[in-house]
What does this fold into?
Amino acid sequence: MTYTITTPLYYVNDKPHLGSLYTTMASDALARFLRLEGKQVMFVTGVDEHGQKIQRTAEVNNISPQQHCDQITSSYQNLWSRWDISNDRFIRTTSHRHQLLVEAFFQRVETSGDVYLGRQQGWYCVDCEEYKDEPPQAQSPSCPIHQKPLEWRDEENLFFRLSRFQSQIEDLISQPDFIWPVSRRNEIQNFVAQGLRDFSISRVDVDWGLPVPGYPKHTFYVWFDALVGYLSALLDDGGQVRIERLEECGWPASVHLIGKDILRFHAVYWPAMLISAGLPLPKQVFGHGFLTREGQKMGKSLGNVLDPEKLLEVCGEDAVRWYLLRDIQFGHDGDFQQKRFMDLVNNDLANTIGNLLNRTSTMARKWFEGSVPSHRNEIDYDHPLVTTAETTITIVRQSMPSMAFHDAAEAILKLAIAANVYLNETAPWSRMKTPGNEAEVADDLYSVLEACRLVGLLINPLLPSLSERLLNQLGLSIDGNDWSKGLAWGQLQSGALLPPSQPVMQRLELSSSL
It folds into this structure.
């Protein structure tokens, strides 16, 4: 059975930011882990390319909306490639296949009797593409997220009968695993308890959108269009664009991984739309927290936005992945602190993991003819590194599926720390000065190198590039078809030649603010 992971379809009003990278990076780590565990994975990401915000942005830049979308979408595709994101599909909502599916989906919902023509009044945020809960008499209200004035709207729209699904949505969101983390579930339950109201699914003043069949001048509301993108992405396999094919192509999604600001759309509106269309519901919606910088919200006006391109160029993929996935408990809000970022990368990756492998392999090559030392054939299951390794493997395999990346990273780091402690306590550099200790030193160095091998395997979903370099220093590589088997202790081959030692992680030195 396919395990389908989706990121949001990112809105292309501007180039990618750290928040979109964070979501995509977490999805990538989950997808990589599940593939290593032998699961069939479909990892979907993409872009939402319609709506008034895009139309206005293109007008300001004196280009067509399509040209604007092409430029920004290209920046997403290029950046995800440079960050080594392993997505299986990238959907664009301007594609013809997507339009065909949106029309087919709408026809199902309309046939169910859940669409009607009405009038929408209210305060609207163009940046959110969402009506806000401000009273009509409010004086100059602004969006709490974008800090921009709201616009008053009074227009004919098509509406979706969300109110019809009150009891079904209440039952759905009460399921313990549907919305995660728990704090998000409570938030949505409070919202639904106030009573679901029908919502608009079309606009009449937005040219840059998909036309609604049978309703001249109406274009689909950007959220109705974008949510269906999860389905059109799965059908983007060259086959027929038919809703009936969805279940054989990976639907329902195993998890929609999103930022907490769009939780309502994914945990309430989207399931109701799917029920109306007669389709299975996603199994989980995971709303992660926001990122701040040095305790402040990031924004252009503050000049403190962290650019993913600059981060990659200055700091490298492994450093940023490690900080975001190791230091922040996924699901909670997190703060990017430059000093802590440098300290963690240097202490954890360059020193604890990198230097451990470097100095151990250097001693092995020097004293054992450039190869992995020989060791006893039987495994000592009471050996401190064997017991630590077994604990680490268990924690990683339990933590990764639930997106507890922090716990997995901490466990891997503790194994490397234990190996460093063991190396310092056994002090092979001293014992080799006394003839007759060679066999014991060989055993000890083998154990540390074997711990390094397991660190390299276990860290792969989180830091694929560093993992590759770690294993290369042991003359190994990742076997994606046999990863689980490789986690058994004692598979490093005695006598195997060790490549010349090279640092696997450079220290991070930042002389100025990112």
